[in-house]
Design brief:
CATH class: Alpha Beta
CATH topology: Rossmann fold
Helix content: 25-40%
Radius of gyration: 18 Å
Strand order of the largest sheet: 1-2-4-3-6-7-10-11
Structural class: alpha/beta
Number of helices: 7
CATH architecture: 3-Layer(aba) Sandwich
Distance between the termini: 20 Å
Largest sheet: 8 strands, mixed
Number of strands: 11
Order of helices and strands: EEEHEEHEHEEEHHEHEH
Shape: globular
């Protein structure tokens, strides 16, 4: 399908890709802790008939330099832009920290119609990187809503990685350790997906080395099912943290973190999820 692409500067930095002729379906595409604007993912979605918009939501001018007390209202102008482009149904597709934001938006903003959470978390976490004050500590929430920080799980700084210094690290154990250390905080920080009116799709790999996204997805799904609410979970035991959709190339190689999975397994998970992603976005 032929698409048209716009580079955006004001009121936010980003990309909008749309099928020629438009669409009544729009999706806000959120990357993870890299802060990357998801150009390639937007193009893939646009070729499938969806208006796709991705923005820079931290690390830009006037923004927090890390994922630290980021206002969830940051995403409202983007969803409004999708509706202005003709989308009657608006979803949010997020990866990792972007999935965390997408799930919270679904809980807090009833105008969100669908959420696709790739490698999700079931809890709100502490900041990754510095806030507006340039400080990383003390830990603060990743997110705010109407100026109030959301309850969060801090990180247990006593945890140490198993890998030798100077090699790529799997930090899944850090998240698992922190949940045990701060179990009382974790209960308050649980993402209440049972309150979300949006349709929900969860995609997670069993070999995720960044955080335990499959157990997180299963926990989210259990919360939904306890209230007889619909939810879909797509998984693959050998896939890692970065599922790749059909038409996307391999994820960038990292020398800092281990993500688990493999290009083949991550692509297979994305391929298995793809028809469900299009189905839930289109409603």
């Amino acid at each position: 399908m032929e698409i048209v692409e716009h580079q955006l500067i004001d009121p936010f930095e980003g990309i909008l890709a749309a099928p020629v002729g438009g669409s009544d379906t729009g999706v806000l595409v959120l990357g993870g802790s890299s802060g990357r604007i998801e150009h390639e993912r937007c193009r893939v979605l646009a070729r499938a008939g969806v208006i796709a918009l991705s923005i820079r939501w931290f690390g830009g001018p006037g923004q927090s330099q890390g994922i630290c007390e980021v206002p969830l209202e940051t995403f409202t102008p983007a969803t409004e832009r999708l509706r202005a482009e003709g989308a009657h149904r608006v979803g949010v597709l997020g990866l990792s920290k972007g999935a965390e934001a997408a799930l919270l938006l679904a809980v807090l903003d009833p105008r969100i119609d669908a959420v696709v959470a790739l490698s999700p978390t079931s809890s709100t976490w502490a900041n990754l990187g510095p806030g507006r004050d340039g400080r990383t500590h003390p830990y603060r929430s990743s997110w705010t809503w109407h100026g109030r920080p959301l309850p969060f799980v801090p990180y247990d700084d006593a945890w140490t990685p198993e890998e030798p210094r100077g090699t790529a690290v799997a930090v899944r154990g850090w998240y698992e350790c922190s949940l045990l250390t701060y179990a009382d905080r974790a209960r308050a920080a649980a993402v209440p997906v049972e309150e979300a009116e949006a349709d929900l799709l969860l995609v997670a790999g069993g070999d995720d080395a960044m955080w335990p996204s499959l157990p997180f997805a299963e926990e989210l799904a259990a919360r939904r099912r306890a209230f007889d609410l619909p939810v879909r979970v797509i998984t693959r035991p050998d896939a890692g943290h970065r599922p790749r959709l059909p038409g996307e190339g391999p994820a960038p190689v990292s020398t800092r973190f281990r993500y688990g999975g493999s290009h083949r397994a991550d692509a297979a998970l994305g391929a298995a999820a793809w028809p469900h992603i299009l189905d839930i976005l289109r409603g």
